[in-house]
Amino acid sequence: MKLISWNIQWARGIDGRVDPARIVRDARAMGDFDVLCLQEVGANYPAPGLAGSAGENQFEQFAQLLPDFTPVPIAGVDVIAPDGTRRCFGNMVLSRYPVQRVLRHQLPWPVDPNVISMPRTLLEVTLDTPLGPVRVMNTHLEYYSALQRRAQVEAIRRCHEETCGRAAGEMAADRRGSPYHAFPHATRTILVGDFNFRPEDPLHARLQEPFAGRGGNASQHVPRLVDAWQHLHGNQAHPINVGQYDREQWPEAFTCDFIFASEDLLPHVHAFEVDGHTQSSDHQPQLLVLR
Description:
Low-confidence stretches: 215-219
Strand content: 25-35%
Distance between the termini: 6 Å
Shape: globular
Oligomer: single chain
């Protein structure tokens, strides 16, 4: 199983050109992926709203570019345009594997009057993979507000804990065709995205903390989330994945995009790569390989 996660900056490359097809070509060059997780997908945001964009619906374009994949979009921003149509900005998962269940979570957006911000989301899809049900969570946390990022990290932890609890305690119900049909809730989880914090940030460690069960004991049903790069490479520095080529937006290159895997999935984590060559976004794509 190969998964790529990429903040595509609405498919805008370092050359200023917006080209979703180039994103797909570069992702395919990186690996024959089964799952593609994208952040910063736009629709109906012509320049100058999104620089270089003609207002194309990129959610539809990526679905057309990958016809053998199931597209699952989520829009954190969904607002009216001057002509009465909708403008959307958010994330997307495209899966070659069957998508058993989709959950769309609105992340907290506490008032922080000192900074600009936008609504943020967590897209949760359960996939029917050769490893069994695997849950993929795709997110993009707030950039400007540390207050909001902290609240969003806690919400992601709650979502993971609750879904794992449902996986352990859900009632078996064979009600096919009914909303109560019991599709599986997976504990095996991959969490990807642009987290807008660096590896040394306490929030990076907070995401990986164990979960406490009743009475303060570690919950046997909630596997801890673990940074996949650190699992494979220990204290070796994370590869740079933002600002490597874009010096106008980023005075320095750094790391804020991560892939986390749940402890019960770690035995299958085989490789982690970052494409340090593509200039199709201001971020570099990440590839996780499971076996």
